[in-house]
């Protein structure tokens, strides 16, 4: 049987607010990273490698700055909530902005 402290460890509205703030951070940074990749003219795998490197940096900064090194205090799943789960949704936004900026800078000269 589960311990009562584990059942009531997280207050759901606070966890939802943390997830919303994290989603906003990931979305806005993916737009910025996509803009940078498009302006730099990255194509193919170079653009995806650029995204993954920046994703690791942003996730590390969220861990150190926002969570003060303790993910279990702010998120139920820990590292999966910060770095694992939202990567595909954020990558879609990244690719959209990346291709848009690349097209605006290099194709429509």
TrEMBL record:
It comes from the Eukaryota. One of its GO terms (biological process) is protein folding in endoplasmic reticulum. It is found in: Endoplasmic reticulum membrane. InterPro entries: Emc6, EMC6-like. One of its GO terms (cellular component) is EMC complex. Keywords: Endoplasmic reticulum, Membrane, Transmembrane, Transmembrane helix. The chain crosses the membrane at residues 45-65, 86-108. It is a multi-pass membrane protein. Its main location: endoplasmic reticulum. Belongs to the EMC6 family. This is ER membrane protein complex subunit 6. It comes from Coemansia spiralis.
